[in-house]
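Allow me, if you will, to draw on your knowledge of protein folds for a short while. A protein sequence and the structure tokens that stand for its backbone fold form the material at issue. I would ask you to consider whether the tokens describe a fold that such a sequence might reasonably adopt. Thank you for your consideration; the sequence and its tokens are set out here:
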Amino acid sequence: MRETLARGVINRLDSPLAVLDDGGTVVYTNDTWEGLDTPETVPGAVTVGEPCLPACEAIADEAVAERARESLETVLAGNTDSVRVSYTAPWPATLGRRFRLQARRFDSENGEHVLVEHREVTEEYRVSRERDHYEQTLADVASVVSHDIRSPITAALSWAELLDADPDTDSEQVGRVTSALERMNAMADTTVTLARETGVDDVAPVELGRVAETVWTDIDTAGELVVEESDRVLADERALEVLLEHLFRNATQHGTRVDGGTDAGDLTVRVGLLASGFYIEDSGAGIEDNLRDNLFDPGVTTGSAQENTGIGLTIVERAAGAHGWEVTAGEGGDGGARFEITGVTPG
């Protein structure tokens, strides 16, 4: 009964699966595996009653064929419980497409067997390569900004300070130069943060309210933070800090604009829980309708372009995405901005 049930489950799976006995002979395959042996997929795929190891020779690349064969032999001999081999298809009809062979030992009522999965992973491989390229590009940009750009900005700020001390210098003009340089410095800081501090390295249970209160204290604002509900969430604490910091800064910089009619001391930022995440809501001026569709794009700012870098909410989206979360923006109960982060796993 159990064996019949297991076969039924395996046969419904989309992945091509085969079961080998301890000698390497195929004793069962699902329908997806049976569909492999075509010119459009994997020519020469074995079926029930045939030995699996010789099929490795169908991989024209000798190095990959040898590695696939040795990996299967290692599992069949009981020297390891599982192996994985990825390769690029050499066959004309599938040239350049990526496949992955995985094998894992398991015990059944009829003895030890090996479950083999052989499926195409071209799209996964493409996404992985693009992500790696993107991460490397960001790292390169961060390195250039951190060293090659920030150093001359720092030097220019020092020169501006010396000019301002000269009584013959127009202080108003120096002030404008200093303001522009300080904004460039802030953009350098946020660009480096975007590249280096939004990744997820160490996920662990983190108390949301505690992190929010720590970040709020560090940004030194005159408003009030209210943690209405808190719980532990699975997160990289540093990436969560970065996410909260830029949402809080967005609230204090945008929500307290002069034309918004909200004084810095009157601003309230609330943190609370959702069914699948948490929210940050402020009592400020809200989000302009013309910004809602591209709010998280680089360069889009909810405040003054002279005071904000336009990268803060991009950092928020990136930090959320690195966790597998989704962030959306809307209107809060007091007419201010409300950001909801969903897809969060409780800690």
Q: What stands out?
A: The first helix runs from residue 2 to 12.
